[in-house]
UniProtKB/TrEMBL annotation:
Superkingdom of origin: Eukaryota
Lineage of origin: Eukaryota, Fungi, Fungi incertae sedis, Mucoromycota, Glomeromycotina
Protein name: MD-2-related lipid-recognition domain-containing protein
Signal peptide: 1-20
Keyword Signal attributed: yes
Keywords (A to Z) from UniProt: Signal
Amino acid sequence: MYRNLIFTFILFATFSIINAVPQFRKRETPFYRCAVGDLLTVKVSPDPLVSEQPATYTVSGTLSNDITAGKTILEIVYDEIDEISEQYLEEPFIQILTDSYKAGTPFNTTAKDVPTPKFPDSYFIGVMIADPTDDPKQPLDVYGCAFSVY
């Protein structure tokens, strides 16, 4: 009987230590497919993001459309979930891509020093690969998109 009690105590002590140490609780920010465009794979660093600290985004995927160097952009936006407004939490981050890729060819791009806003209790991140258009009703032709919700 004492052996079972000692074993149980050691087991609970081990679980308590594992749960107290943050490196054992690694969590990767999940990104999901948007309603438009192909799915992008997005990795952020630091993960999780830190409010008002710059981040690095690594975006990859295989798109159904060509990526044109000097024209196609990577856009990252932060917005509140609870409020629908025309104002984002931070100005969208836009990076013009410097490499061209044919449709169906895997691509990879990195955006460094992306500013992050002061995060509210709930927000989302949108990441897009798109070509700007001249149409004010549809300013972007979205080729790939992913989002994450906090």
